Amino acid sequence: MTTTTTDAHSISSVDQLASLFGAVGEASIRKETAFVHPHYQAMIDASPFAVLATAGPDGLDASPRGDAPGFVLVQDAHTLLLPERRGNNRVDSLRNILNDPRVALLFLIPGVGETLRVNGRARITTAPELLARCVVQGQAPKCVIVISVESVFFQCARAIQRSGLWQPPAAELRQRVPTPGAILQALTDAAVDGEAYDRELPARQRATLY
After folding, report:
1. What is the pLDDT of residues 65-105, one digit of tens each?
2. 115, 107 in Cβ contact below 8 A?
3. Which residues pair with residue 117 across a beta bridge?
4. How many angstroms separate the most distant Cα atoms in the chain?
5. CA distance 210 to 171
6. Residue 66 CA to chain centroid, in angstroms?
7. Please, what are the domains in the chain?
């Protein structure tokens, strides 16, 4: 799809992109598979965190997912199981999947520069045998997202290296980033007591992880 604009510097065609960036390297092409190669399974098994991207009638969504390494199960070379744990009950990703099954996953592994990208199609199930496979601390997930894999490839480490993501954070970072309570107090015109919210949040999170 192309876009129309009056900006002479805007990129509006695939040919312009190709001219700007050049040819794709052979390694970048050959690293992509239509299944979960054993090396790619090793990356999924080592990952405690992933971002799930979905699309729906109200737009796009990117949602964090995390648990102990290997929380996304490789059922077979063409199927992943993503447990849906307790959260804020917005279920944006799940509502999107009901309208559009296309999904993408980005897996991160602490200390490793390379990330893993998976594209596929998803469905939602409460099948007892799948819920039982995803029990943690005696708690089953609300449901399981079953992802039929269409493409898998690793992403090079440049973004992680440029960002310094796995480096220790600056000492003043916490002071520069607003807390959840501060954000809610500002957005609700102080209807939410920010200090009380922040004070109670750690205990509430610990009690509702699973």
Report:
1. 999 999 999 999 999 999 999 988 999 999 999 999 999 99
2. yes
3. 106, 153
4. 59
5. 31
6. 9
7. 27-163 (2.30.110.10), 173-207 (no CATH)
DSSP E strand stretches across the chain = 49-56, 59-66, 73-76, 79-84, 102-108, 115-125, 143-155
Take residue 150 and report the two structure tokens written for it.
Answer: 């269409």
133 neighbors 81 (Cβ within 8 angstroms) = yes
Instruction: Please count the helices (runs of H) and the strands (runs of E) in the chain.
Output: 9, 7
Q: Residue type for 10, please? A: S
Query: Residue 55 has which token pair?
Result: 């699309």
Q: Which two tokens stand for residue 119?
A: 């594209």
Asked whether 112 and 39 are in contact (CB, 8 A), the reply is: no
Give the C-alpha separation, 54 to 171, whole Å. 35
pLDDT digits (tens, 9 = 90+) for 3-15: 555 688 999 999 9
